[in-house]
Amino acid sequence: MAARARSEERRAEILRAALEVIAERGYRGASLGAVAERVGLTQQGLLHYFPTKEALLVAVLEARDQWDAVPRGQWRLDLLGSLVEYNTMRAGLVQTFSALLGESVTDGHPARDFFTKRYGAVRENFTEVLRAEYGELLPGGLTPEAAAPLLVAVMDGLQYQWLLDPESVDMPGAFRDFLALLGEPRSHGLTGGVGGTAGTGDGGHHVDLD
Q: Which residues of 114-140 are buried (b: 16+ CB within 10 A; e: fewer)?
């Protein structure tokens, strides 16, 4: 048990170091060697805990989702807007989410299963948020089930545009504009939960949607 506890502590240390490296250097700069050096390991030693860079980065995104998570029943649409704004302060993590997401659509990619399951959960949770805010129909006539994938797509699509041209794309402002298009909610009470997309993230993503 002591050995297992030490291993878990070491994994947590590596994840914290990976987050630091990502924040400083972005996705491309987050090499296994850079992370290993940060925690006093050789690259071979790091591979004992995470066999590939993709495995390490997926673990980072999973950890981010846990840190961003809000208990079910406590998310509102305006809080999603706050999450989008928060993501503008962690560009390296949003970049990592978005880069891995783009790569994961290829067959056999190690992050594909993570994103497939994550998006299924995010769509389900966003459906709960929208139903709690609007009831069975949004003002435009869409059901919460039909609107949820659109909400996810806007959050993650804005992240790509913002990463490419942050001076021209006001990500939080554009997301607020999209929420205005959905119409006025019937209530601003407590709503269903979501782990966040980029993450986001679910970014997003990742609700990440980092």
A: bbeebbebbbebbbbbbbbbbeeebee
Rounded Cα distance between 83 and 86, Å, is 5
| Gap between the Cα atoms of 13 and 122, Å rounded | 28
Name the nearest CA neighbour of 54 among 100, 118, 17: 100
Q: Contact at 8 Å (CB) between 188 and 81?
A: no
- Is the pTM of the predicted complex or chain greater than 0.90? no
Please, which pLDDT band fits residue 29 given cuts at 50, 70 and 90?
A: confident
Residue-wise pLDDT tens digits, 55-88: 999 999 998 888 776 666 667 888 899 999 999 9
Contact 84, 119 (CB under 8 A): no
As a whole number, the mean pLDDT across the chain is: 86
Q: How many CA atoms lie within 13 A of 173 on its CB side?
A: 6
Q: Residue 108 in contact with residue 210, Cβ under 8 Å?
A: no
